[in-house]
From TrEMBL:
Coiled coil: none annotated. Keywords: DNA-binding, Transcription, Transcription regulation. InterPro entries: HTH_MarR-typ, MarR/SlyA-like, WH-like_DNA-bd_sf, WH_DNA-bd_sf. It comes from Pararcticibacter amylolyticus. One of its GO terms (biological process) is response to stress. This is MarR family transcriptional regulator. Residues 1-140 form the HTH marR-type domain. The lineage of its organism: Bacteria, Pseudomonadati, Bacteroidota, Sphingobacteriia, Sphingobacteriales. PANTHER family: TRANSCRIPTIONAL REGULATOR SLYA, TRANSCRIPTIONAL REGULATOR, MARR FAMILY. GO terms for molecular function: DNA binding; DNA-binding transcription factor activity. Pfam families: MarR.
């Protein structure tokens, strides 16, 4: 194989995802949305299924408990979500969208859709599908390592 190591790094975990996140943040700000890509990933799950547990949000976004807590703290401070303890087990907390959280769905989703559309502009669909298959294979290869995330349901 004649692939340079830095090319693999840049493609999979390096500059491309970092740039996408920066552009998304800029585009969220243009629309007066005070959220990050990481927060959006949680909100996207809640827009599809409101009332997820913090554990479920962590599992489905491959984030550790402390990271989920920090993201939710910020979203709660902004009155975008609320956390409600389970009546039977106070260690379990359900996360619900507030009216404000529900109201930003359309704008935030549009921003993400337009940003990704711009990101793949000029790339033939067949190549995008190849990229998707390759990245899915990278995921599967790493999942075989037995990492604790592999037991989690993916979004």
């Amino acid at each position: 194989m004649n692939i340079r190591e830095e090319d693999i790094y840049n493609f999979i975990i390096g500059r491309t995802p970092i740039l996408v996140n920066r552009i998304l943040l800029r585009n969220f700000r243009k629309e007066k949305l005070d959220i990050t890509m990481e927060q959006w990933s949680l909100l996207d799950l809640l827009w599809k299924k409101d009332g997820c547990t913090q554990h479920e949000l962590g599992a489905r976004t491959f984030r550790e408990k402390a990271s989920i807590t920090r993201l939710l703290d910020k979203l709660e401070q902004q009155n975008i979500v609320i956390r409600v303890p389970d009546r039977r087990d106070r260690r379990v907390r359900f996360v619900y969208l507030t009216a404000k959280g529900k109201s930003i769905e359309e704008t935030a989703t549009r921003v993400v859709r337009e940003t990704y559309k711009h990101a793949i502009a000029g790339i033939p669909e067949e190549q995008v599908l190849i990229c998707k298959r390759v990245l899915n294979q990278v995921f599967e290869n790493l999942a075989e390592e037995g990492d604790h995330w592999t037991a989690c349901e993916t979004a």
